[in-house]
Amino acid sequence: MGALSELFAPGRIAVVGATAREGSIGRAITQNLVDDYDGEVVPVNPNYDEVLGLPCVDSVGESDADLAVVVVPPQIAVDAVRDAGKSGVNNVVVITAGFGETGSEGAARERELREAAEQYDINLVGPNSLGIMSTPNGMNATFGPDNALEGNLSFMSQSGAFITAVLDWANDEGVGFKDVVSLGNKAVLDETDFVAEWGDDPDTDVVIGYLEGIEEGREFIDTAREVTQSTPILLVKSGKTDAGAQAASSHTGTIAGSDRAYEAGLEQAGVLRASSPQELFDAAQMLANQPLPESKNIAVITNAGGPGVMATDAVGESGLKMATFSDETLDAFGEKLPEEGNIYNPVDVVGDADIDRFRDALDVALADENVGCALVLSAPTAVLDYGELAEATVELREKHGKPVAACFMGGERVDAAESVLREAGIPNYFDPARAVESLDALGEYSDIRKREYDDPVEFDVDREHVRSILEAAADRGDTRIGVEAMDLLDAYGIPIPAGDIVDSPEDAVTAAQEIDGDVVMKIVSPDILHKSDIGGVKVGVEDGEVFDAYEDLVTRARNYQPDATILGVQVQEMVNLDDGVETIVGMNRDPQFGPLLMFGLGGIFVEILEDTTFRVAPVSESEAREMTDEIQTAPLLRGARGRDPVDRDAIVETIQRLSQLVSDFPAILELDINPLVALPEEGDETGVQAVDVRLTIDPDQL
């Protein structure tokens, strides 16, 4: 049993704030429990002798409950939770609103609530929660209008209103649930806790949810990775746009994180992300009831040419592929279908097809080893009985053990067949695209199950030197650091060109003489980040020009920003940009997922092309390598149009080393290495060179 098993299977429930008053939440919750709950309900209210025919007690301490549902005003809700803890009640659901979602006073009250729960080791759901449900024991500890049907989906939502809407729809559609949780403000228990609980629950086949934020991103990733090896997780994550993120923040007090961080984090966790409630439940029903495909090759069997083309288009926009049939399959189709039929994919059994022809075609397709899944797509005709087609579809799915989706198009004539399909766990869709998307989710989860995760590499680095660089900047009052922090990269084994930062023209000349060939010179100032925009960079400077170049750079900086802090000028070895590829490696610290790594095409094209990919740190070698493959301009790295391939192994190692750096130092809020020049993998110069860096720090985190 999981750590939260008693939360969902209590023997006795106390309703703190139960009342007989019509229209009150306390009455609604008590009534819902009285109607369906298998256990004992104890109303807690010193103002009543009984509520709904049940004897009342004055305090939760007298209830001897396993679970307390708190429905009292926010001013006394914290005291009610403390009383529950003192009485040995370890599971509490706080329905009451008026906490972190309401402002500073409510946030302070929520901190008190959290402290009380921690003091007494309470599993606390909420506050600002609709409540929880568990269908095996009939528990409906919510103020929603309906209980859920029994099923194998467990559902969490940060929106209580979304739960009531979903249950209303699900009850009409015959979709059932194991457990349902309204997360509320997540003062104690959050999505990670429930993912872990349901991952251990043999009666939960799929975890689904609606989230507006994730509290501890890295912990969620690590937990979800374990769970998704046996149980799929499907989430609708709102707040994709800035406006949506702000609305989510206003709704539950959630600090908005970057949607790029969510996209990366959920992908790393093996979580499937749905864009809408319809997509969520389409995929959930498929995942809960169908076998996993051995391949992503789909066969479409149809009696309707137009819908067949629609299905083919949908496949082209998905991760599935139209299956290529074997010669034996094509011969079998040739025998079973009329001349006007199409034996290639999509298979057209023609509009006059009866049940025998449809059954034969589906049987032949599913028997082909090249076919991983199938779509039965039919328009109604006078010669085809949908009930018989449904039974044949179920029979052949069981015979071949491959996932099948149905798209029986039509109105009322579909209802009876749809019931047969639903009973067997085969969803039916009117739109072929929905059927394809659901099979695509099944294929994607099949890939997730096959994943092997490797641990991040720990490199031998000089942490103390990095700390000294960051502390020196903090002592100067600088929160933004530029090329003066190049040694920070060197301390973590990221290659940098030879060079030095000097504060006089004489020292600049000395530094240049120690470098072979011409040099690059850059103004060094925490107040001037875009150096090239002000003429603060000189390239190809010969030794005899270094003295004057130094004075010119400082003069330009002073003229541009008289009050700027000038730390000096960087004199740096020139890197061969002609043979290399300019890339960028960076990090932005997300409020919910932590350090978000970026890799992409660098140089001046970063903001124009935005050809980048992201991962939440720390990353493993395989994840770093995936990043180098994912950008659209990856062919440049592999050698395109006669160019030599670059040293991708060196890029991969740099991403890993940067990952370790930003994980080791939470004080680094942002960091860009741009450009990171990737040199050819063969020749006199190989590897990478970090030519420029800038970062933002939070001195309070040092």
Which key phrases capture this entry?
702 residues, alpha/beta, Rossmann fold, Dna Ligase, domain 1, 4 domains, 7-stranded mixed beta sheet, 30 strands
Can you describe what's shown?
- The chain folds into four domains: 5-286, Rossmann fold (3-Layer(aba) Sandwich); 291-449, Rossmann fold (3-Layer(aba) Sandwich); 463-573, ATP-grasp fold, A domain (Dna Ligase, domain 1, 2-Layer Sandwich); 581-701, D-amino Acid Aminotransferase, Chain A, domain 1 (2-Layer Sandwich).
- Helices cover 38% and strands 21% of the residues.
- Strands 9-8-11-10-12-13-14 form a seven-stranded mixed beta sheet, sandwiched between helices. Strands 20, 25, 26, 27, 28, 29 and 30 form a seven-stranded antiparallel beta sheet that branches.
- It has 702 residues and is an alpha/beta fold.
